[in-house]
Amino acid sequence: MITLTTERTEPIPLASACDALVIPRSTFYARRRAGAEELPAQTSRKHVRQPRALTLEERQRVHETLNSDEFCNQPPAEVYQRLLERGIHLCSVSTMHRILRAHGENGERRDQRTARHHARPRLRAEAPNQVWTWDCSKLATRARGVYLTLYVVLDLFSRFVLAWMVSRKENSTLARQLMSEAALRYRIDPGQLTIHQDRGAPMIAHRYIDQMTELGIVLSHSRPRVSNDNAFSEAQFKTQKHQPDYPGRFDNAAHARAWCGEYFDWYNFTHHHSGLAGFTPEQVFTGRYRQIAAEKQQALDARYQQTPERFTAGRPSVALPPPRVQINPITPEQVQAGATDTVNFPTLNRVLRAQEKTEAHPGDEEVAHADAATQRR
Question: CA–CA distance from 22 to each of 7, 15, 39, 71, 126 (Å)?
């Protein structure tokens, strides 16, 4: 390297020669000062045996001790302390970790439950009454440690609050009653609706799952400890509990019902939802947003005709609500990787077993649907 650099033709600068040889100039100067063609190759510390390191026999003894019947399920820190109480010192805790790592045995040494992979819920709504989401939230009372339970059912497409209930208890019986009455009120046909919820006790109860399955309603559940899977219901509760007039603590159940009644009227009919392009949930749920959008567009057009110079981006247009609302939408990259674009499917094994049971006895399902139709009439 030194020879090639020193014997270069005079017009070639040293910097260009070093760049061509992919070496820094400081290396060239250092080796030229050393007066040698090549300095000895440097070796990293991890390849050099330290004089204070354990011998191979000592390392083998430590490894056998860690994997003995007495210590095979214990972490190195526990093994170190136990041996030290017996007057035995083999090595430090960090050295035990290094020996285990060299054999690929580092990490949790105790028996662990195999990781469970839960299905990711994927939901899509392109019209009202295709997907509902619901959840429960606690309402504090003035009595210390006493809480009320608020049940809220939300239409995913329009964010319209379909049904709600305040109770002193949280159980599957009330959930079944609320969902059954809502399905009758909005004339839900079998196979039309998917209800999404988390994995709370009322949502995974056998009777609740069986009754919804008999009504032909698909049940989708969030993954454990993943609140984003039910983000729309969680966002509604945040909007509710951050209202300026939210009491914080209620006197009793009657007080909570009165306040919630006023709030949900405001939320459905007055609140201009940012996720709905400024329309109210009721306008999107009923489809009136199209007429209202035309009226808004007329106001914008009139203003544009008066002062077009104020609209630097051109003629303004009214934004419309999204044509579809999704939870955990599948990306094009996932589709190209082989993932299926299936949505609104059950994610709980218990629900799948209930569906198989219903399919095995179709007569029971027909009777349930007939009873539901009779109640509607």
Answer: 17, 10, 17, 53, 60
Which residue ranges make up each domain of the chain?
2-34, 54-102, 123-265
Angle 192-207-194 from CA coordinates, rounded to 5°: 20
What's the pLDDT tens digit per position in 62-102?
A: 999 999 999 998 999 999 999 999 999 999 999 999 999 99
Per-block mean pLDDT, blocks of 10 residues, the chain (377 long): 57 79 80 62 62 91 94 93 95 94 87 81 95 96 95 97 96 95 95 94 93 94 88 95 95 96 97 96 96 96 94 93 94 82 87 80 51 43
Rg (CA), the chain: 35
C-beta atoms surrounding 15 within 10 Å: 9
CATH fold label, 123-265: Nucleotidyltransferase; domain 5 (3.30.420)
Q: Report d(CA 165, CA 245) in Å as an integer.
A: 20
